[in-house]
Amino acid sequence: MASKYDGLARIIIQNVGGKANIKSVTHCVTRLRFQLHDEDKANTDVLEQTDGVVSVVRAGGQYQVVIGPSVHNVYDAVLSVGHLTGGGAVSEDGEPLDGDGSTGDKPGALTVAMDLISGIIAPCLGVLAAAGMVNGLLALAQFAGWITAEDGVYQVLHAVGNGFFYFLPITLGYTSAKKFGCNEFIGLAVGMALVYPDMVNITSNEVLGTVFGGTPFEMNYYLTFLGIPVIMPPSGYTSTIVPVILSMFVVAHLEKFLKNHVPAAVEFFVTPLLTLAVGVSLTYLVIGPVASLLTSLVLMLFTALYALPTVGGLVAGAVLGATYQVLVIFGLHWALMPIRLANLGTLGYDNVLVPGVTGVFAQGMVVLAIYLKSRDKRTRDIALPAFVTSLFGTSEPAIYGVTLPRMKPFVLGCIASGVAGAYLGVTRTRAFQQAYSGFMGFTQYLDPSGAAGYSQVIQWATGCIIAMVIAFVLTWFFWDEKKWEEKAAAKKAKQAA
Fold first, then answer.
1. Is it the case that residue 257 has pLDDT exceeding 90?
2. Does a structural domain hold residue 132?
3. What is the largest CA-CA distance in the chain?
4. Structural domain of residue 71, as residue ranges?
5. Of the candidates 11, 39, 109, 385, which lies 20 to 30 Å from 137 by C-alpha distance?
6. Whole-model pTM above 0.70?
């Protein structure tokens, strides 16, 4: 079926070097993420001048075409126009590839890690944010006395919000399976095994023993498997992210091995049988405990930074606030998502990543200042929607379309968010849900228990206002948009000559 985005999709495909140059294409919140055979074949200048394209970024081994909030529509059009399937992966001769579209190249460890994180978490990020907002709005309604936890409205909507987080390993089992080239239903089955009620509830049984006793990693076990202790986190693996991803990495390789060695006559049922039996057993005995230890170690490191005498919160908040939008540029902010989810799952709140939310407001206000100072129609056409988009939590259009090409305004925004982040770090502002950033993200700072009242929302709002005011003032007084436009026009005229 024809789409209004088909024309843009054709231009994009043509200027990334054509269909034959595409290894794979995925998308995140605002960007089409291409892996190309030869990036030199891409016409970056043409793409950046195309209406509907905000900018082009090369990062993490990917050729990223920044679209904005309509990226999912453009992505669908690219797949349709280019006749791409399986996540948009094509081989050298244009035929679809299996799995993740790998062609045997050896990307760096950082590239692989970021590709995995974005590929596994990005597909469910919108629903993840929506579920968090449902929980936040319920907390607001309960705190205000509009409904109680016993009301039918509360219970039904709470099942929507809390259910997604509780059964998150099932969702990630599916997306991980797709990313690792495994049977998606095996991924679902592994996720289901991790949140199976009888296993979740074994922590209510009698403690049979303890491992790593006397250390910060001390864990109890409540049953054994062939004499081997089955070590479980206190709340099981519900709402976790790392264990199922590591498990699916192992399971995917196990499935591929079995497919190559099990006789074809019985492969249909023997391969899933052995994959699940061995894979889930390994998950409970080895992979899950290792993942829990790694998660605990990361949390300990961040906790230690915040625990520095006097300046811990200030330093941690300032660093994260000032650098978060830099991480966004390279897509590295995905790496922080597991920390937030781990904190929510173990502590019931997160204050480690809160300072990062100020960056989107700071970049938005920088763009507003530029919009008010600019007389260039193209700049104003990009800046106004980018400002509005930033208020609702998406900063990429502002960064790639306005602030980063000018560089200094981007830095001014980072300075402003660093100051605001320091405030949020000092106040130890807590988020109790995972929701999208921007103004609608206020719901994640509502304490479901009601103990914190509106205090965390007020602190969050104060931090955002600090970022916005400082960013606007710095840009207004220390950035000369007219001079920059004159230089840009002169450079363009010189190139044309």
1. yes
2. no
3. 82
4. 6-98
5. 385
6. no
